[in-house]
Write the structure tokens for this entry.
Amino acid sequence: MFEQIYRFGHNLAENEYLVRGWGQPEAGFVWSEGSAATVSLPAPVGDIEIGISIWGYVTASLPKQQVLIFINGLFKGYHEVSQREILTIQHDCGKDARVIELTFYIPTATSPSQLEGAPDNRRLGIAIAAIRMVSAQESDQLLNSFQ
């Protein structure tokens, strides 16, 4: 059985895996800034399920964020994200993979200053709080309790 949880937020060690496109970590989460953001994690061996605790920067005029997800350059799915949820992705790491480069493309990222007139020029798209990787055969039991 394999299970690994990476939590992101202010003063957390796992923030080192946030390699591109992320803002300053906040209390228990981090926002993407711009239209792309990447997390680079050590790769386990074999088939895994990845659970991502994620939500979008949304307002009345932007009710969801469009998110395209790639792992090591391979397209893994399109999602529309608004409220906090767990997105799950299946991936076969093989036996030679060294890293899982998880890239989020968020074409609808926008700034609070544009949408709400707030004094915040960051181009926000998604926030993530944690990523959990489990071996695929254990995924049902372990991911159900993940937030």
User: Anything to note?
Assistant: The first helix runs from residue 112 to 116. The chain has one domain: 3-138. The mean pLDDT is 91.
